[in-house]
Specification:
By secondary structure, the chain is mostly beta strands. The chain has one domain: Thrombin, subunit H. Helix content is about 5%, strand content about 65%.
Length: about 110
């Protein structure tokens, strides 16, 4: 990913959500998702493949570049990225430039 990202390349609408666990009156845990940020991003496929670990899993690795958001940088790997109803686990967030962009590295197991 070069440091030049143009606004026209940010053509994918993504959501960054956080899982919040709470307890009901009967003390059972309930997990809900709260949207932290909904923004446009540019996407780049890094790699893909298959793993055989008892069953075949398809691994998809991607990077998304978004405008700098301090809340997203702070929460980091606790967030989940949703793109086209597919949930990605965030592995790492890299700041590009001086508070200009964030590069989000994530993976999806299918």
């Amino acid at each position: 990913m070069d440091s030049k990202t143009f606004i026209g390349q940010m053509d994918r609408r993504i959501q960054l959500v956080q899982k919040i666990k709470s307890q009901t009156e009967t003390c059972s845990e309930v997990s809900t998702e709260a949207v932290i940020s909904e923004c446009f991003a540019s996407m780049k496929d890094v790699s893909g493949g298959e793993e055989v670990d008892g069953k075949v899993k398809h691994l998809v690795s991607r990077t998304y570049t978004i405008w700098f958001n301090p809340l997203v940088k702070e929460k980091g790997t606790a967030l989940i990225l949703i793109d086209e109803n597919r949930k990605f686990e965030i592995l790492h967030i890299i700041e590009i430039g001086r508070k200009q962009y964030l590069e989000i590295r994530c993976k999806l197991y299918e």
